[in-house]
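Case 233 in the screening queue. Each case pairs one protein sequence with one candidate compound; here the compound is cytidine-5'-monophosphate. For every case the pipeline is the same: read the inputs, emit a complex structure as tokens, and attach any notable structural observations.

Predict complex for case 233.
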Amino acid sequence: MVDAITPQDSPVPVITIDGPSGSGKGTVARLVAEALEFKLLDSGALYRAVALASLNTRVAVDDTAGLARLALTAPIDFTTDNGTGNVAVLLGGQDVSTQLRAEEVGDRASRIATHAAVRDALLDRQRRWRQPPGLVADGRDMGTVVFPQAVLKIFLTASAEIRAERRYKQLIEKGLSANIGSLLADIQERDDRDYNRKIAPLKAADDAVNLDSSSESVSQMVTKVLDLARNRL
Ligand code: C5P
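Case 233 output:
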């Protein structure tokens, strides 16, 4: 006799949102996860935390073995503030969320992310986030490499100019100084590295839905993703 399939047997659904820096994928992923009451994986934060750990322990960006060891063993944790819902990233028990957003750390993250051994070391850490009732994962290779069986894959883009403008506004609002020309150059350099690296380059999965956030608000993007998700779940 064939056993009946119970709801517990169905795989935990995953929604992936990939795209370049500043496309809005992090914000859209967080709001979609909140609306569905799913878990949220910000995979970029893992790469950034390894980058910060490598700065703290003076492991060079070309030391493949040293970086892979850090990716496997660095004491990285995520905690959620139950009051605000904000997620903090801890490294060795210390809240490093603000440090991780620094341009220097993002730039270093994109350099260490070119090592296959680092990416392999982070695979398991990322897959462990797939827990009931479901997961929204954002990054560069969530739909292509980490969760190829995701029920819904989104590839979110926006022009480099729009992304630089958004970053400029964020920095000015925080009272920090910023130069739009150098922000655009940084974004283009990071894009170039992410799209053209040999291992797990940034690209849309064949079965991904492509969305362009250049002229759409965050809430329009979230509504679109939720409509697609509810159709598939
Ligand atoms: O998304 P975020 O800007 O925080 O990511 C920092 C860097 O980490 C990216 O520029 C990218 O090179 C790398 N990354 C990656 N794969 C992921 C997430 C991030 O290579 N899944």
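Case 233 observations:
- Residues 21, 43-44, 47-48, 106, 109-110, 113, 139-141, 190, 194 surround cytidine-5'-monophosphate (CB under 6 Å).
- The CA atoms of residues 19 and 156 lie 5 Å apart.
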